[in-house]
Each structure stands twice: as structure tokens, then as C-alpha cells.
Amino acid sequence: MARSTAMKAAGLILALLIFTFFSLAASSSNNQIQILNAERRIDLSSHIVKVFLTLKVENVGTSPASEIFLAFPPSQADQLALVKAQAAIGKKKKKSYVHLDVNPTQLPDAPNGTKYFSISLLNPLSSGETATLEVLYILTHSLEPFPAEISQLESQLVYFRDSALMLSPYHIKQQTTFIKTPSTKVESFTRVEPTKFAGRELKYGPYEDRPPYSFSPVIVHLENNSPFAVVEELLREVEISHWGNLQITEHYKLVHAGARHKGVFSRVDYQSRASVKGASSFKHLLASLPPRVHSVYYRDEIGNISSSHLRTDYRKSELEIEPRYPLFGGWKATFVIGYGLPLEDFLFESPDGKRYLNFSFGCPLAQTVVNKLTIKVVLPEGSKDPSAAVPYPVEQRLETKYSYLDVVGRTVLVLEKKNVVPEHITPFQVYYTFKPIFMLAEPLMLASVYFLFFMACVAYLQIDISIRK
Amino acid sequence: MLEEDTRKLSMADGESSREATARTLRNAFGNVFSFFILLLIGILAFSIRLFSVIKYESVIHEFDPYFNYRVTQFLTKNGIYDFWNWFDDRTWYPLGRVIGGTVYPGLTLTAGTLWWLLNSLNIPLSVETVCVFTAPIFSAFASWATYLLTKEVKGTGAGLTAAVLLAMVPSYISRSVAGSYDNEAVAIFALIFTFYLYIKTLNTGSLFYATLNALAYFYMVCSWGGYTFIINLIPMHVLLCIVTGRYSSRLYIAYAPLVVLGTLLAALVPVVGFNAVMTSEHFASFLVFIIIHVVALVYHVKGNLSPRMFKVAVTLVVSVGLVVCCAMIAVLIALVASSPTKGWSGRSLSLLDPTYASKYIPIIASVSEHQPPTWPSYFMDINVLAFLVPAGIIACFLPLSDASSFVVLYIVTAVYFSGVMVRLMLVFAPAACIMSGIALSEAFNVLTRSIKFQLPGSSGISQSGDTSMNTEGEQNDIAKTEKMDETAKERPSKKNKRKEKEPVVKASIRSRIERRLLVLPLEASVIAIILLVLLGAFYVVHCVWAAAEAYSAPSIVLTTYSREGGLHVFDDFREAYAWLSHNTEVDDKVASWWDYGYQTTAMANRTVIVDNNTWNNTHIATVGTAMSSPEKAAWEIFNSLDVKYVLVVFGGLVGYPSDDINKFLWMVRIGGGVFPHIKEPDYLRDGQYRIDSQATPTMLNCLMYKLSYYRFVETDGKAFDRVRQTEIGKKYFKLTHFEEVFTTHHWMVRIYKLKPPKNRIRGKTKKSKSKASSTSSPKRSGTGKRNPWH
User: Fold this and answer.
1) Residue B508 — very low, low, confident or very high, per pLDDT cuts 50/70/90?
2) pTM of the model
3) Is the Cα dihedral A468, B16, B33, B478 positive or negative?
4) Are B434 and B404 in contact (CB under 8 A)?
5) B563 touching A, CB under 8 A?
6) In chain B, fewer beta carbons within 10 Å around the N or the C end?
7) Helix%, strand%, coil% for chain A, nearest 5
8) Confidence class of residue A30 from pLDDT cuts 50, 70 and 90?
């Protein structure tokens, strides 16, 4: 008892220390950084909202700053799929970009549950210096269909909620927000002067000299008929066979996440003018697969789905699939895509003798959000010490799977990630050790079984087991 | 025996031993050869059935297989005990169905065991894959069983020929292509194997085979309702043997254990249960069981008594026995006559009286496979075998043995049954194969022998060697018994077999001398062989064509070739089922005609009102009545059944002929059989069924018409129905109680939702109040109360 309380106390002290440290760090940085110019470009043309942020920051304090903080309101933080940042280096002509690390952090004086990400600068920004940062962040499920239920003939209208003023822990001298809409049809939008709508672009700003944490909520009600394809669950199984094949099986649970379909679905209307009558629906999906893909299949639990096309060239393969029926809002479909790939394109040997698989993370379907992605890498029987190198934080665990004539089972490395967007498609690596002798285990087993069988036959035919002669 | 015979002929000991070793070698070679032929036959039987997988996909076919597949899935997921106790609430809503007690579990258990076996070896095949390939595997088994059966009847040569014929007989292919996961697929194997074991017991008199026979019979009872064919055919044969004075102790051993054990085992199968002793289908076996005991007793007594004493005993027993028998029969007849169907089930009765079903049970008559076949279908299904069968029958009479008389009896009864129902062509096909196998083998035997005798080179060879070579067909197994003689020490279990074969061997020696005289001219036999080979080639070509083109379509996916040669796929059924399964609530009830019941439960996983297990006529008639009623009445019927979606199959846009409009008259008939307000003549104009402008108003206003043709006119402006080849009668109409929720790409399946009852407008309520009170329907008063303004 006494020991546990002591430990608790120690933990408390530690937490307090960290807290004070962070609060000191934060308060100091908040005061010494100011944003000279912030430009936000929000792209609403699909259901994946992309925000490009260009920040020009200046260190007005005395000590050098190594971190810049980005702030998000809690509602947006849940929808945030990805934050990327890069710094511009060099002059205008010879501009090059350097990737910067972005990590979620917490600040002590966060108002109303604001969530933070910290961008670590390459070189600390010394006093009086300026730097230009480019930030891309992606929001999913942030377009709310309104009306929530539409009929086949209506087109889909959505709400987009954001703030005209960028949420930031810093003082912003000048800021502008551009919202790009998919069509010219915008039902309404909140006006925060100066506000201008022209063509397919809505402009908020420029606003001058706003203090930290200024917020001015806006709602844009606009038409968006792009396919709201959401994969609720995607299970990708990558099976390595050292006989030269990499077998991929992908189980999809697809849903149209737009405004729910209401009432009648009329095939006559859909077939006569699908683009008008059924505008919010979609029927094609495009999956980009690696080159040299072979034995592709596309099926669901009740059999093959015949409506798919595969185009291959030496750089990539494109699989165009159609679900069994066009998907209207709220309609679901499940299907499986499977294909084989030549092993030598993906499996390599690292200098320390380990083997590693280099495969792409994410969902091969274009323009889709995956709510829950599970990647299972099935290593060959007898492989040891699996470890994964993934560029994003993912959950990892190990499983065992029994496949064709396995005795000890295959090690399966399971990677899980929520809220995955196409921008997550980057290579990841799985390292493991494997002795090639294990490849012969199954053929030898089969051979010996046959041998024993024939020996048993011979023995049965030759041995006299009768009692009476 | 033959060995002794040759020894006499050759006169020298050394020579005979040399010949004996040569023959042993030849026999060994022949055995290995026939083993490989059998292996190839198995591969042929399996692979000829894969056309459907190659041309289409690995998918379960048609209707009933989907049910079997679903049951297998349940079995593999929940285990055998849950399977026996399975009450299925997804079908026959609101009644449900006790699956464990109403299915023949043989097929399901077979595939389930296969799946379990594979998975325990860590071969992760899906249940679907196992189900798809069960039928081809079992047809390979069936052709091996045919080999064994025919070998017992007429020797190895005939056995191999019959096996190869059965491996590709179109009639059997039609029920056992990959994906056709139906009872018949395993039942035909069980049928032939049971017959084989019966004949084997009959030939050997071994109790071991008799027990196996009962077990095989048990498997057959598990698999298919057609087991009644076995339990009637075998008693018939026993009776035939007794009547023709062929009673022997072997016959007794072949029959008595089968009846006792077989009946006990059959009663273990829940779906059969006490029917095994209670229904008329089984009575013949019991009657013959009594007779064979009486006969056995008589033979026993006859053997022990002197002829005079025997006569006295006979008169005594006959006079007493007759009285007892008469009393028994009277009681039995009274019992049977007291039941309305005379103790026979509907399907069996329609076999005995082909007009029975069309008169009394429209559901049985409405199924196309229960119709009598046409002559072309015989040619389609057994092809050249039809011409070879008579020759085979004749060959069976030369000489007539117990076994060959059984085969003759089998084919005669099978011909009759196949003439009553198309479906029973399947029972006929193995018999035809066996007969043709015998005929072909005998013919080749005669022809090759005549050639051999007349070839200049061969006459010089010593006669003994020659004859043993020539009479291969029949004597192969004699030679085998001979080998048994030599190796008797090694295989003592087969010793008793030798004793049984002795008379046959003697007969064959006698016949061999006769056969020397039965020689055909050389030219004639060469030409005949060529013609026979051509005939065989024609058969093979036909079988491959039938397997590839006629019987491989899964019927759930349709394909057509466009004029440019492109393949067009109609996958509408699965589109609709997938839609139902993903986009409706789990507990929603779907009403459709019973044909689609199994598929809806299996593929869409939704509750259906009626399905292909047509056990409740009233329920089917209710759905039939709803389909043939006007919209409002239909809505009320469906609503009372808690139905949320109505599914109709419509082929008018693409010309798919087996749609609901073409089946509609059966709905009217079945509905009208229970609910007399539906009258068939109301739907016919001058006795003609039509949907064009001449159609009757009842037809044009019934639900089926409306659901099929709703907004059809907007597709081409004229509403031309490609199946009926006419413009429809009523083109523009609105639905008031149903709304279209889904139509597939080619319009083949249309799904409608029942609209919820409308809120009443105030003014209308007052007006209709008097009406409502007069009808005093509880539903209406219910809606009245729900109205907040009331």
C-alpha cells in the first residue's frame, strides 16, 4: 500500500513538473511568435476537405523558437486525418521544400479544448527572423448533408462549418481564407465582411491584426455531388510466399456517406439521364494497383461481380470496378478485391541479413476515406522477429494464421489505423528473418505422406494377417 | 479350376507353370491397367463437370442448391447438434420451418464432413468451394460404383465400359455439374453403390457385404427421397428370384439383413422417422420379408423331411397360413384405406398415377421437372444409349444370372418412372449406362474374337493360350478368382467367394467351346467395330456438348453473345439480392413467388414468406392470391403477413422467358385452389392467356401485372414485351399502395416496398365512417385511432 501511494505521489510530481515545463515553454513561445501573413485555401470539391495553409511567421521575441503550433477547434480535430508541413527554403526562383515533422501536443492554457499540433522547425528561428511554412491538413466527414435525406432527383447539398478567422495561438497580422466550391451553386454562406463570392471561389478577408484565438464561425451551404465514397472497414491481407508470389486480398465495406436516399429508386429515371436524376449517386470506383499485377478478381460473398475492367501498363495498373448496383446515399455494398504480385518487386534483403517487405500503406481506391484500415501482413511459416516501419502512428499486434498445410502457423503482423485518406498512400516496411529451408517443409511433408501411404499399401498387400491358414 | 484344365491340355508340368506365371503377370498387368483406366474415368467424370466453373464462375447454381448451401453453412458454423435442432425463422414467415427434421441430411453432412476434414488439415477452402465441387467428386465415385456393379454382373470389360459411359452421361451431368449442389449428386452414387453391394452380397453370400449394404442404404436414405426406389426394387427382385425358383441362402442373406438393419437405420433419419414402417412405400419390402421367410422355412423343412411328410406339412401350413394371411391383409388394407391418400405421399402417387398431380396437387404439377419427358429429351439425356439398351437387355439374358436379372428389372422399372417425371431420368441413366456398357462390351468381345480367330498368324498358336486371351471380357474375373486360388493364402477373406464362382467357371468352359462356333466374318466384324467406335465417338461429342453448352449455365447468371461476339452478362438476380442484403433491415420480410425463396434467404439473408420447400399449400396460395388480386387487396394480404418488400421477376425488357408473368397462371391456379374468389377464367380471354390490349380487366388490374409493368412504357415508348412478343395492354398507371424501391440493371428483378397506410384527411374520414363501421375491419379502426385529429 505504502509503496503504491509513494509511486502515485512520484507520478503526480512528475506530471506537475512536465506541466510546468510545458506551460513555461508555451507561454514563452506564444508571445514571441507572430504570424505576418496567413493564407488558407480550402478545397471543398470532393468529400475529402483539403486545406492548404501558407504561414509567414516571425520571431519577435528574444530567444530562438524551434516549434510552431497549429491550433484546431475540437470538432475539427476529430475529423483531422492528416497534417503535413514543409518549409520553403531559398529565394523565389530556387525555391525548394523541406518536409517538417508534425506531432500532436498539448498546451496548458488551451481554451475550450483546443487541440494542437507542433511543427518542429529545422533550424530554430532566431529573434527577428521570418520563415514561410506550407501546411496541408485534411478533414474527413466534415461536410454535413443538409437536407439529410434527398430523393433520387435532387442533388446533394452540404454544410461546411469553419471559422472565417484562423484559430491560432499567435497574433495574426493579416489573413485571408479562400473556399473553393465544386460548382457555382452555393445556397448560402455566412458573411464576415469583407466577403466575396465569385466564380467557384468564396473569399473571406483579408482581416488585419487579430489577437490569438480569434474565432468567427461561418457556415457555407453548397452543392456537392462528388461521390461520398467511404470505406467503413478495409481489411488488406498481404500474404508473402517465398515461392515468388505476393497475394493481396482486400475486403471492403463501402457506404455512400452523403445525404440519405429517400423513397423511390426509379431505374427508368436513372437510365434515361443518370447525371441529372441520380446526381448524388456513384457507380464507378477506380483502384490503382501496382504494375505487373496478375490474377485479379473482384467478387462478393455471393459470387463474382462481372462489371470491372483492368488496364495495365508498365508504371501502374488501374482497376475500374462497379459495385453491383449504383450507390445512393446510405446504401452499402461489400466486396473483395484480390490480386497477385511478383515477389521480387516488393521483397528485399536489408544489409543486416533481414528481409523486408516494402508495400504501400492506405487504400488503393481513389477519392475514398477509410474509417478503419487493417493491414495484415502474413509472413511465411517459420519467419521470426517481425517489426514494422510505418510513417504514421498505427496500432500493431501479432496474430497466428493457419493456411495450406501449416503446422506451426504463420506469423501475422496486424497494423490498424483509423481515418485514412488517399494522401496516406506511402510505402511502409515490414522486417523479418526467414531461413529458406522452411520453404521445403511442406513439399517434404507431402512427399513423406505419400511415401508412407504407398509403404502402407505395400505392407498390406504383402503381410499375411489371417488367423487361419 | 481353369488352371487344372490347362494343365490337362498342356500335359507338361514345366510348361504349365511357365504359363501360369505368364498369366499371373498378364493378370497383374490387367489389374494395373484397369486401375489406371478407372483413375482416368474418375478424372474424366470430375473434369467434364467443370465447364460451368470455367465458363461462368465457381458459384452455386439454381434454386435448391442455395438452400443446401445455406444449411451447410449453418452446419459448419454451429455444429451437428444445432443443425438437428435448427428451427429456421427466416422462411415461411410467420410459421418457420424445422430444418433439422425436414431435410435429407446426407448431402449436407457429406459436404460438411469434407469441409471439416480439409480445414483440420489446414487447407482453408471456403464452404462454398467445397459445396461447388461436391457433385463432381461424387460423380467420379458414382462411375467407380458403376464399374463395381457392372463387374459383378458381367465382368471387368463391361464394368469399365459402363463406368466410362456413366462418367459422361448427359442426364447425370445435368444434375451434377460443379455448383449444382443438390441431393441427387450424392444420391446417384449411393443408389448405384447400394445396388452394387446388394449384388455383391447376392453373389458371395457374405454377411459382411450385407451389413455394408444396409449402411449404404442408410446413406441413400440420408441423401434423397428416391431411396424408396431401392426399397421397392430390391424386394421386387427378391420376389422375382423366388418365383423363378432361384431362391438360395445367398438371396436370404442379401435381403433379410437389409430390411431389418436398413429399416432401423432409415428410421434414425429424422425426415423419415416412423415413415419407414408406416407408409405404403415401404410395405412391399415387409411383405417380401415375410414371403422370403416362409420360403426359407419351406426349403429348410423340405430338406429335413421326406417328400411324403413334406406334402402333409404343406397342406397343414397352407390351410392355417392362408387364414392368418387373410386376416392380416384385411387389417392392413383397413388401416391403409382409412388414410386419405391411401398411405402414399403425393409425389409417389403421381408416379403410380401420372395424372394424379395435375388433378389434385397443382404445386407438384407446376414444377417443370415433375412433368413427363418428351421423346427428344430422352435423346438429349442418354443419346445413343437409348439404342444400346435393348442389346444390353438381350446380353443380360445370355445367360441369365441373379445379378443380370436384377439389372434387367432395374432398367424396366426405371424406364417406367422416367416416363412419368423428367426428374427420374436421373435414375434411368445409370441403368442405361450399365446396359449399354454390357452391350458394347459383349459386342466388342464377339467382334474382336472373330477377328482374332480369323487372323492368319494367330491360328498357329496353341489353343489354350489363345482361348484364355480371347475370352477376356467375361473371364477376366474368372481369371481373377483363379488368381485368388493361387494367392488364397494371402487373402483368406475372399475364400468363400471362390466357392460361389465354381459353377460359373464350369459354365464358362462349356460356353467357350460353343463360342468357337459363333464367329462372324472378318470384314463384317471390322466394319462393325468401326461403326461401334463411331457410335461411341458420337456419344462423347454429344456429352461434351451437353456438358459445355446445355447444362452448365448456373441460371443465376445469364450470358448472351452480342453480334460482335462480345459477351454480355445479366447478373440481375445477384444485384437484387445484394441490394436487399445491404440496404434493408435485417428483419424485413420479402414476399415473392416461391421459386425465389431459397435464393432470397441464402443470398439476401432476408425472411421470406414461402420458399421452394412447398410444404404448406395454403401459405403459397395466400401469396398466389395476393399476386393475382388488385393492388389494395394485395396490400392488405401482404400487410397482414408483415411483408415489407415484394420482389417480382420480369423478363419483358430483355426477353428472359421464365419470369413471373409466365408463371402467373400457376399462381392463379394455386391461389384459386384455396381461395375460391380467384377464378382462373377471369384471367383468360377465350381460354387464352394474354397481357396485351385484349387481356381481361382482372388481369390488367392484378398486382403481378402492375408490379411487372410499372413505368415499363417509359423505356421504349411503346411498352413492347419481348417475351410475350406484344405490346402490353395497360401502359400508364400509378401505384397507390406500393412504391418502387429498386429495379435491377436489366429490369429482371423489381423490388417494391409496401407504402405505410395513409393518414386520413378529416373530411374523408367522416364520409367513410359509415363504411368503415359496416366493414368493421380491425385494421381500419386501428388506423383511425392513430389519427391525432380524430
Assistant:
1) low
2) 0.85
3) negative
4) no
5) no
6) C
7) 15, 50, 35
8) low
Report how far residue B658's alpha carbon sits from residue B140's, in angstroms, rounded to the nearest whole number: 32
Interface of A with B (CB under 8 A): 263-268, 271-272, 300, 302-307, 324-325, 330-334, 402-407, 461, 464, 466, 468-469
CA-CA distance, A181 to A324, in Å (whole number)?
A: 31
Q: Which of B572, B557, B605 is nearest to B70 (CA)?
A: B605
The span from the CA of B556 to the CA of B57, in Å, is 11
B574 closest CB neighbour out of A264, A267, A303 = A303
3-class SS of residue A150:
strand
Q: Give the tens place of pLDDT for each residue, A40-51.
A: 999 998 889 999
Q: Rounded CA gap, B438 and A202, in Å?
A: 89
Nearest to A302 among B574, B583, B740 (CB): B574
Whole-angstrom CA distances from B532 to B130, B319, B442, B447 are 39, 58, 12, 10
Confidence check: pLDDT of A345 > 60: yes
Residues paired with B200 in a beta bridge? none
Which residues lie below 8 Å from residue B164, measured CB to CB, with a gap of 6+?
Answer: B37, B41, B44, B143, B437
pLDDT tens-digit map of B356-414 = 766 677 777 777 777 788 888 888 888 888 899 999 999 999 888 889 999 999 999 99
Q: State yes or no: cis peptide before A212, omega within 30 of 0.
A: no
Strand partners of residue A249: A237, A338
* Distance of alpha carbon B746 from alpha carbon A402, whole angstroms: 43
Report which secondary-structure segment, H or E, holds B252: helix B249-268
Nearest residue to B140 (alpha-carbon basis) of B33, B32, B41: B41
* Average model confidence (pLDDT) across chain B: 83
Single-letter amino acid code for the residue at A223: E
Alpha carbon distance B401, B389 (integer Å): 18
What count of residues does chain B have?
Answer: 790
Question: What tens digit of pLDDT does each residue of B13-60 get?
Answer: 556 677 778 788 888 888 889 999 999 999 999 999 999 999 888 889
Work out the end-to-end distance of chain A between its first and last CA atoms, rounded to an integer number of angstroms. Answer: 83
pLDDT at B493: 42
Q: Which of B57, B575, B583 sits opposite A304 (nearest CB)?
A: B57
Write the burial class of residue B113 (CB in 10 Å: 0-12 exposed, 13-18 middle, 19+ buried): middle
B339 pLDDT tier (thresholds 50, 70, 90)? low
Q: What are phi and psi of B745, to 5 degrees?
A: -55, -45
Residue A208 grid cell:
488585419
Q: Are A67 and A154 in contact (CB under 8 A)?
A: no
Q: Are A265 and B743 in contact (CB under 8 A)?
A: yes
> Residue B223: which residues within 8 A CB-CB, separation 6 or more?
B104, B106, B107, B110, B183, B186, B187, B190
Q: Judge whether B566 is closer than 8 Å to chain A, CB to CB.
A: no
The 3-state DSSP class for residue A75 equals helix
A292: Cβ–Cβ under 8 A, 6 or more apart, which residues? A312, A317, A341, A342, A345
For residues B105 and B112, what is the distance between their CA atoms, to the nearest angstrom? 10
Please name which of B555, B616, B233, B608 lies closest in space to residue B369, comparing C-alpha atoms.
B555
